[in-house]
Description:
CATH topology of the largest domain: Rossmann fold
Structural class: alpha/beta
Helix content: 40-55%
Strand order of the largest sheet: 1-4-3-2-5-6-7-8
Largest sheet: 8 strands, mixed
Bound molecules: nicotinamide-adenine-dinucleotide
Number of helices: 13
Order of helices and strands: HHEHHHEHEHEHEHEHEHHHE
Radius of gyration: 21 Å
Amino acid sequence: MIRNALASTLRAAAPHTTLRAGSASFSALPRSVAASFASQRAFHVWQHKDNTVKHVPAEALPTGQYNPGIAPPVETLGVDAVLSGNLSSAKSPTPAIFTEFSLAGKTAVITGGNGGLGLEIALGYVEAGATVYALDIHDEPSAEFKAVARHCRDLLGQELHYISMDVTNQEDTWKTMEYISKESGRLDVLVAGAGVLQTHDALEYPKEEWDKLFAVNSTGVFLSAQGAAREMIKSPHIKGSIILIASMSGSVVNHSHRWAAYNSSKSAVLQMARNLAAEWGELGIRVNSLSPGHIRTKMTAKYLDANPELLNKWSNSNPLGRIGRSAEIRGVSIWLASQASSFCTGSDIIVSGGHQIW
Ligand SMILES: NC(=O)c1ccc[n+]([C@@H]2O[C@H](COP(=O)([O-])OP(=O)(O)OC[C@H]3O[C@@H](n4cnc5c(N)ncnc54)[C@H](O)[C@@H]3O)[C@@H](O)[C@H]2O)c1
């Protein structure tokens, strides 16, 4: 998707453009790099209007919201560290187990980051110390995104970036990933979360609708992973982690819903994660899928609100007797992005309240 605003932003910028008002924490791009992105005009970088950035020292943050430090090398962890006499982690004020989950120093990209699960993951990653870029189709971020970005800036002292782009366009997706990697100096983590849901009887399913859904849910996920991996391999020291958001619906069929295309597109994502894990493992990139169960977001709210009986039905479809909350995806997303999951690749992690066991 062509976005003219980036070009005009860049043209208006000073010799070393900042691209973003008030983004004091980021190094500026040289004019030549910025100009080359401007001429490509593949995406649009949203800018904060509010320039007041309050930098809060890490020690002033509420406990549990900040995992300081780059993740330590494996030799300094666990039993090996104890046996080799390296007890510094045990004496450290931050227990080593939490530093393993730290995303400090890493750059993460989240597609579909304007709301729902993507925005939840984005906030979790900022809290874990990452530089985070949320990508979404909308030109302007949602009110909830803006509120969360303001929170990140004012309370956590970190920017939550927003870039408008379309994951179905290969060229734009590659350019966006390249831009992020150049601007932040690295790209460590991708969460491919952009997705759409529609309902049609299989006997009548219009081909255009089927194609549209697959373009986002399957092809778009692949293009995002491809674009991110192409940047990750430019820095051999980076051990990239790619998380493809699938669904429990890739493995089970939702009773009495006409979701043939959606469920098939999510099955494709499960197999895609295994294939990419196989191809990219030797490049140091891990690829896993994450399969949520029923969670109320904009995507599911339209079904829940139109059919009041659905809430009970979905809730009673799992042993916990309720649907999930977006925030319940944070922990597993941080684990998959961090060194704490360093031996996990090609796996599907199901977070569904146990829906699929019945
Ligand atoms: N909510 C659930 O119950 C649930 C369950 C299982 C899986 N999922 C999956 O989780 C992911 C996030 O969904 P959600 O529930 O947060 O819904 P959501 O609608 O809030 O988020 C999806 C986001 O993707 C964006 N998007 C759509 N097309 C795009 C495109 N072409 N380019 C860029 N962005 C695009 C949308 O604008 C939206 O912000 C989806 O892949 C969804 O299939 C959701």
